[in-house]
Design brief:
The complex is a heterodimer of chains A (1040) and B (202).
Chain A: H1 13-18, H2 36-41, E1 64-68, E2 77-84, E3 93-100, H3 120-125, H4 130-133, H5 144-147, H6 149-153, E4 163-165, E5 174-176, H7 179-188, H8 198-201, H9 207-218, H10 224-231, E6 250-254, H11 258-270, E7 275-276, H12 284-291, E8 304-305, E9 312-316, H13 327-339, E10 343-347, H14 353-356, E11 360-362, H15 369-382, H16 388-391, H17 396-401, E12 407-408, E13 413-415, E14 438-441, E15 444-447, E16 459-462, E17 465-469, H18 470-478, H19 483-490, H20 494-504, E18 511-515, H21 525-539, E19 548-549, H22 589-593, H23 614-620, E20 628-632, H24 636-639, H25 647-651, E21 658-663, E22 675-678, E23 687-688, E24 699-703, H26 716-726, H27 746-759, H28 770-784, H29 790-795, H30 799-809, E25 813-815, E26 822-823, E27 826-827, E28 834-835, H31 840-843, E29 877-882, H32 896-901, E30 907-909, H33 911-916, E31 924-928, E32 933-940, E33 948-952, H34 966-973, E34 1033-1039
Parallel strand pairs in A: 6-7, 6-20, 9-10, 9-18, 10-11, 12-28, 20-21, 21-22, 29-33, 30-32
Antiparallel strand pairs in A: 1-2, 2-3, 4-5, 4-22, 8-19, 13-17, 14-15, 16-17, 23-24, 24-25, 26-27, 29-34, 30-33, 31-32, 31-34
Helix pairs in contact in A: 7-26, 11-26, 12-21, 15-19, 15-20, 15-21, 27-30
Chain B: H1 2-27, H2 31-38, H3 61-73, H4 94-105, H5 108-113, H6 121-133, H7 141-158, H8 162-172, H9 177-196
Helix pairs in contact in B: 1-6, 1-9, 6-7, 7-9, 8-9
Classes of the chains: A alpha/beta (1040), B mainly alpha (202).
Chain lengths: 1040, 202
């Protein structure tokens, strides 16, 4: 090819007089109308566009579809107003507006949701005209992120076709290929890329077969050589059969659709144990601390108060009017609660939007939440402000007599003679079985299930066994430090600690804590979370109106009419996950062969997700390497601690031989894939809410397509169906479900899910009327065009189910009628179980580095690395981060409307710290951490504790349409003069109006996080909770 | 003599139309078609402003596809939007207007078959090919003048952004066929614009 400078041929008339040899081939060949000229010279410039400038454009139910938002993890139930697509556009329709679903209580606070039986025509019409009653009555609330979802779907940088990399990974060069070619090469390999196919790396064998023979090897009934010969083609390592089959080297990291992708495709199709979600860098430590504070049969993952009746609430490490599980319902609920007189304390290092509305703001030292909880616990115990009657109930019967739905283990005895410090069993004293515990009732050992009440404080010896009650162990822990010492640790005045504890214990059962990940994103996160739970334990506020609630009731989705997660003849996954989640080191073959402690990398006996360890572990080949990595809706490079360090691993084809990503835009991680496949945005597809609802009602929302923007995009589920079919795997195609029905497209799965929802409960939903069925079809033809395959949809369920499926789809889910949330003074959906001061499961677990036992009672620990040493830094400022009100996930950066709110993430700094560095608001700065440095600008504010700095995450993109998109870079260099307000671009905190700037503004705060000095390629972690630490890094800030 | 001049003018017009067709083929990425033409010894004279196309002889279509896909298809580091709307600050109706024009002209299928939006450069050039081609249907000077005014207006409204596109491509592509094609397209459009304005002495 010639360089630009060589082109010196000017155009002149001679060129057209003589023509060029090949031009004749470009003679106009299209058929002309009889009088094209007349046609052209007629009214060709007249454009009859519709609806432009019409501010009251009206709509009916034929323009309305309900679905589920995915602009953040709240998964709000939403209403979309959709206009039919024009012939000249690729997209099937245009979503004109997004609001809340008026049938759903999530999005209708403070108004009541519409009665579920309201006809959809009436629901769409609303109550009165838009001009009179306002939009709130025609559609419920949704937040700014939700409304901007239109821009996520119609983003100009959407991937339009399957792409295959050209050159090395990350070269940024791609070639478009067909889906067929992509799937063929993913399955059978690519000669030109040199990537292996799944077929060449996959092998599976059931666990029972292997372990039966391994047992023989251990019993000398079979030689290792014979075992090796028999299994070397199917096991990852015959010396370590517990690693599982080679199928485990096919790994998935995905943000959602867990049931379909994890349970059906991975755990029963491929038979691979390695499908991880984002929890490891999100709330897993907090979830672990919560779940383990209660009996496991009912997983209480979160701490929510009954906001409608609570009189004193502590928002601890959370910002519910902006983040948490949704400002759409939390903000109005909290506002209303404040209006009726609720008092609120907010424990947060910075003045968050919630803290602005608090009666008490407690700007705690980051990571010291456990210390504050123990301090409050000390004061409550010393002043006997706990509910003693509640705590003395050792079982359900005793609790019921006191009108208490729950009871605690406060009186249960712990065997402190045993290093494992387990709860004393009745069998230990010859009183009963191993399943029963022991309490002292008036000093007499009694079965916990038989005692009317137990002694709260016990420290004695029974039959030579030293025992203490759970409460005593807790009391001893809280008494280890004085209030003054706690005050020093937390940076909170003694008076404020006492005030908090006093207020918390002044409202009977109508006080509760709302807590989230802010208390848990550090190396002591599990213990912090447990310590906070115990404050709720002390007042026994569970299931009480105005107390701590246990939510999550939903209509059955995965079973009922169809067993969606059961795969006939499944390849049942087994083995050790590469991230070593929920695996005690001591029980593995590596423990023996590696000589016990310390393990090379951490093992996590309790945490359900440790996804941050997947790629770093693969790089180390510990415990084994991976062969294929599939990533969908997750971006480790942005979201993992020091994630930029993962780039070199992702680029290394020896460490990750095959890398496939499905994405809607080329992201910071997917840009390194071998195959990058166009995914559907949430407005284009079926799906489900997979985290949890958080209402006092029974709710199941449904995600369904409301438009199609990219013709070649496909749901990731369909790609896996194709791959599994090509590999003759179970779980897809004919007889994929236990009832014999098939799975040929994702509609087969999700419409069956809707059928399950429709038929669950005391009685199923009604049939859709003839009118509603007509509207259903009309709306979808309009919204989806050729992508509404009526026959495929209808055949996904049984004929008698279809009308009920339509009924649910027409309303975007199924919602229990409000008004039945309480039974007397209690909530209807209850925990109704035991709450635990003592976690005996953790007490018997061991640190995989030191081999030391963990503690069943919350500890206070400094920031520790994997080796157990305190992490010290010469940097003076603690670094924290938080979710912005307008950036719920990294995908939100595509939405111009949101970037207009605040185009960047300035670093918050207290004037005290700023003055010492000569910084003023808006100054350009360099943020220097131990392993990385970034550039940004400073926001000087009293709204953050001195000694601490912080910023919002989800900024600092360098892909995801940020660098390459001409529309943005062009636009941001010469911003259009729209808007009415003069805007100062670079004055943080004054974003009254503004320009969106580009997508690459700000900095990635995760990139600053400290790496563990032992692990080197991953950050600091909580060994019990399993989550990545995000608040344990220190930085220095300098002016640039 | 007048007749011969008319024939020459018609030849020039048709060649200009075909040149738009050629550029449309290039910017729609129809490499197989282009390369097959070159393989039949259809060389372009060395002094012709389109002679840069000769260098394509023997080029692997895959190489061209990679260059094209990375510039105009894959929204990655090298991506440059080939759509007019991306370069317009204030007109969000471009696609609707162009789509209506194509439909009225009866040439919308070409663009639709390629799966491209109406404001894709290749589609716009295809329409311009049609617009110039229509001169052969003009029955009098008045119609001819109207037609040429439409062409000038279309260039003004829908092809001036090629300058911005070229600048954007220059930032991504150090050298390569598509860059060369854009350079020559820019010159060609400028020539045609001036020719339509009557500033070029015929």
């Amino acid at each position: 090819m010639s360089k630009e400078k060589k082109l010196d041929k000017k155009v002149n008339r001679r060129d057209f007089l003589k023509g060029a040899g090949i031009l004749g081939a470009f003679a106009f060949a299209a058929p002309l109308f009889t009088d094209p000229l007349q046609q052209l010279l007629g009214d060709v410039w007249i454009d009859d566009l519709h609806g432009v400038g019409n501010f009251t454009q009206d709509y009916t139910a034929a323009n309305v579809l309900y679905t589920t938002c995915e602009q953040c993890n709240t998964h709000c139930t939403i209403k979309t107003f959709v206009m039919e697509g024009k012939k000249n556009q690729q997209y099937s329709s245009l979503v004109r507006k997004i609001a809340g679903n008026p049938y759903s209580p999530i999005n209708m606070v403070p108004y009541n949701a519409l009665d579920y039986s309201t006809p959809i025509a009436a629901a769409a019409a609303g109550f009165g005209s838009v001009a009179v009653d306002g939009r709130g009555f025609r559609g419920g609330r949704t937040c700014l992120k939700g409304q901007a979802g239109i821009q996520t779907a119609y983003d100009a940088t959407r991937i339009r076709t399957p792409l295959k990399r050209v050159g090395p990974r990350g070269s940024g060069k791609w070639i478009s290929v067909t889906w067929e070619q992509a799937i063929e090469e993913i399955v059978n390999g690519s000669n030109d890329l040199g990537t292996p196919g799944l077929k060449s790396m996959w092998a599976y064998i059931p666990q029972e077969v292997v372990m039966a023979d391994w047992e023989k090897v251990n019993n000398k009934e079979m030689t290792f050589e014979d075992f090796d010969r028999k299994y070397k083609e199917v096991l990852i390592d015959t010396k370590h059969p517990d690693f599982g089959p080679k199928a485990n080297q096919i790994v998935n990291l995905s943000g959602n659709r867990r049931e379909f992708v994890r349970q059906r495709i991975w755990e029963q199709g491929f038979g691979s144990i390695n499908s991880d979600d984002h929890g490891g860098v999100c709330g897993v430590t907090h979830v672990t601390g919560n779940i383990r504070s209660f009996e496991l049969k009912k997983k209480k993952k979160r701490m929510y108060p009954d906001l409608d009746h609570v009189e004193f609430m502590i928002a601890w490490g959370t910002n519910p009017v902006v983040a948490n599980k949704g400002p759409t319902w939390l903000a109005p609920k909290i506002t209303n609660a404040k209006a009726r007189g609720m008092k609120m304390a907010v424990i947060d290092t910075r003045m968050s939007k919630t803290a602005e509305k608090a009666d008490i703001w407690v700007p705690i030292e980051p990571g010291m939440d456990g210390a504050l909880a123990l301090a409050m616990g000390r004061w409550i115990i010393e002043n006997k402000r706990y509910d003693e009657r509640y705590l003395r109930n050792p079982n359900k019967d005793a609790a019921t007599l006191d009108n208490e739905p729950t009871w605690s283990d406060a009186t249960h005895l712990i065997n402190v003679s045993d290093p494992k410090r387990q709860k004393l069993r009745a069998s230990d004293l010859g009183l009963g079985t191993e399943e029963e515990f022991v309490v002292l009732q008036n000093g007499v050992p009694t079965l916990h299930s038989k005692a009317a009440e137990g002694d709260l404080e016990v420290d004695t010896t029974i039959n030579g066994i030293r025992v203490k009650s759970s409460f005593t162990l807790y009391k001893e822990r809280v008494m280890e430090k004085t209030i003054k010492e706690y005050a020093s640790m937390t940076g909170i005045a003694e008076e404020q600690i006492i005030l908090l504890a006093k207020e918390f214990t002044s409202y009977g059962k109508k006080a509760a804590i709302m807590s989230y990940r802010g208390v848990a994103m550090n190396t002591n996160g599990y213990y912090n979370t447990r310590a906070i739970n115990m404050l709720n334990h002390l007042i026994g506020n569970y299931d009480w109106k105005g107390g701590s609630i246990t939510t999550g009731k939903r209509f059955s989705e995965m079973k009922g009419r169809y067993e969606l997660l059961k795969v006939p003849k499944a390849n049942k996954a087994w083995g050790i996950p590469i991230s070593r989640r929920q695996t005690p080191y001591e029980k593995t073959s590596l423990f023996k062969t590696d000589g016990g402690y310390p393990a090379q990398r951490p093992w996590f006996p309790y945490a359900g997700s440790t996804s941050h360890e997947v790629i770093p572990s693969a790089a180390e080949g510990y415990p084994y390497s991976l062969k294929a990595l599939f990533i969908h809706r997750m971006s480790p490079v942005l979201s993992m601690p020091g994630g930029h360090n993962l780039v070199e691993i992702l680029k290394d084809t020896k460490k990750i031989p095959l890398f496939v990503a499905n994405d809607i835009v080329i992201g910071e991680t997917s840009m390194y894939a071998d195959y990058l496949l166009p995914d559907l945005s949430y407005l284009e597809r079926f799906g489900q809410e997979t985290i949890y609802p958080n209402q006092l009602h029974k709710i199941s929302s449904v995600m369904q397509p409301v438009t199609r923007v990219i013709p070649q995009a496909r749901p990731v589920e369909d790609m896996y169906i194709d791959i599994l079919k090509k590999m003759n795997m179970p779980g897809v195609g004919q007889n994929a479900f236990p009832d014999g029905s098939s799975l040929d497209s994702y509609e087969d799965f999700y419409l069956k899910m809707v059928a399950n929802i429709a038929f669950d409960g005391e009685k199923p939903v009604p049939d859709a009327t003839v009118e509603e069925i007509q509207l259903f079809e009309e709306t979808r033809k309009k919204a989806l065009g050729k992508y509404f395959n009526h026959d495929v949809w209808k055949k996904a369920v049984k004929p008698e189910e279809w009308k009920k499926v339509v009924y649910v789809l027409n309303r975007g889910g199924r919602f229990e009628a409000p008004g039945s949330e309480y039974v007397g003074e209690h909530v209807k959906y209850q925990l109704a179980d035991q709450v635990n001061f003592y976690d005996e499961g953790v007490a018997k677990g061991k640190n995989s580095f030191t081999g030391e036992f963990f503690d069943g009672i919350p500890q206070l620990n400094p920031v520790k690395n994997y080796e157990g040493d305190e992490v010290k830094s010469d940097k003076p400022l603690k670094l924290i981060n938080w979710k912005a009100r307008h950036m719920g996930t990294h995908r939100n950066i595509n939405d111009t409307w949101l970037r207009e709110i605040r185009p960047s993430n300035p670093l918050w700094m207290n004037p005290f710290d700023a003055d010492r560095r000569g910084l003023k608001n808006g100054d350009k700065i360099r943020i220097v951490a131990n392993h990385h440095t970034v550039e940004g600008e400073v926001f000087v504010t009293n709204g953050i504790r001195p000694g601490t700095v912080g910023a919002e995450f989800n900024f600092g993109h360098y892909a995801y349409g940020s660098a390459p998109v001409q529309i943005d870079s062009y636009w941001t260099k010469t911003p259009a003069p729209y808007g009415n307000t003069k805007y100062n671009f670079f004055e943080p905190g004054h974003e009254e109006s503004g320009y969106a700037l580009g997508r690459n503004t700000g900095f990635s705060i995760n990139s600053l996080l400290d790496l563990d000095p032992i692990l080197k390629n991953n950050g600091l972690v909580d060994l019990i909770g399993g989550g990545a630490s995000q608040y344990d890094t220190r930085v220095e800030v300098v002016k640039r | 003599m007048e007749n011969q001049q008319e024939i020459l003018e018609q030849q020039v017009t048709e060649n200009i139309s075909q040149t738009y067709g050629l550029f449309s083929t290039i910017f729609l990425g129809e490499w197989e078609k282009l390369l097959s033409l070159l393989s039949n010894n259809n060389e372009i004279d060395e002094d012709h402003f389109l002679s840069f196309i000769n260098e394509l002889k023997g080029t692997d279509p895959l190489e061209l596809k990679i260059q094209y896909d990375n510039l105009f298809v894959a929204p990655g580091y090298y991506f440059v939007s080939p759509f007019q709307e991306s370069y317009s600050n204030d007109d969000d109706q471009i696609r609707g207007i162009l789509g209506s024009l194509y439909e009225q002209a009866g040439i919308h299928e070409k663009c639709e078959e390629k799966g491209e939006l109406p404001d894709h450069l290749g589609c716009i050039l295809a329409y311009m090919q049609w617009l110039v081609h229509l001169e052969s249907f003009a029955e009098n000077k008045e119609e001819m003048a109207q037609l040429r005014a439409l062409q000038a207006g279309f260039i003004e409204n829908h092809l001036q952004w090629v300058n911005k596109l070229k600048s954007a491509v220059v930032r991504k592509l150090e050298y390569g066929f598509i860059l060369e094609a854009l350079q020559q397209l820019q010159l060609f459009i400028e020539y045609h614009r001036e020719e339509l304005s009557g500033s070029i002495n015929q």
